[in-house]
Amino acid sequence: MAVTLALLVLVAWPAATAGTVTRDSLLNICMSAKHHKEKPGPEGQLYGQCVLWKDNACCTANTSQEAHEDQSYLYNFNWDHCGAMPQKCKRHFIQDTCLYECSPNLGPWIDQADNTWRKERIRDVPLCQEDCEQWWEDCQDAVTCKVNWHKGWNWTSGTNQCPQGAMCQKFKFVFPTAAALCEQIWSGSYRYTSHHRGSGRCIQMWFDPAQENPNVAVAQYYARGDAPPSPPLPVLLALLPPALLALL
């Protein structure tokens, strides 16, 4: 019995540490997509709203510049497909682009993509309530013709145009709630949550660049399932009675 218990400790320890390694592989990584770097790292020249990620980014300075342009080379996407988008609304889409292109803290939500132009995408990223609510509040009177902006556009001109028969309407009619906007506009990339900024349970699109990136801790929480780190082998062995240690 004593020998069996000791052996169980030795067998369980590698399995536990392997689980930790697997979970940690979701941390500080860049997805395999169109413009992402292979690995995150410092980018001191990030532009405008993307500057939040300058200390550790998956985007280049050039990508961050293009994230602020209308119909940029990144995706040739036209925010103004139903007329000029108000700047107070557009800033949220710029921030959304910066988060997607630059953040190295989206690993727990990286999934396989069904596109020819990228291998991976994000799915169900838990956004903080304030980020979704403010996005909807500032965009409710902007105009669009589609719910899902990932697919279904007319690209014959080289940039996205409303498909035939689609009617331009204010966001508040297309997306009646903040949850509808965050969860539907990019086909489930984001998930609306009741968690607040600073809770450690939701990803923040916006944060103070003078402070540490709060999304690091959020990614750790979801990657590890809130599990404590596995104790090192010496700690486990110290828990065994001396009589059992003598049998090893």
UniProtKB/TrEMBL annotation:
Please name the GO terms that the record assigns under molecular function: signaling receptor activity
Query: What InterPro entries does the entry give?
Result: Folate_rcpt, Folate_rcpt-like
Keyword list, A-Z: Disulfide bond, Signal
Task: Determine if Hydrolase is one of this entry's keywords.
Answer: no
Q: Which residues cross the membrane?
A: none
Residues in Folate receptor-like domain copies: 29-204
Range of residues in the leader sequence: 1-18
GO CC annotations on file: external side of plasma membrane
UniProt entry tagged with the keyword Cell cycle: no
Family matches, as PANTHER family: FOLATE RECEPTOR (PTHR10517), FOLATE RECEPTOR 1-RELATED (PTHR10517:SF14)
Task: Give the family from UniProt.
Answer: Belongs to the folate receptor family.
What is the protein name stated in its UniProt record?
Folate receptor alpha-like isoform X2
- The scientific name of the source species is Pipra filicauda
Taxonomic classification: Eukaryota, Metazoa, Chordata, Craniata, Vertebrata
Query: What gene is this protein translated from?
Result: LOC113996127
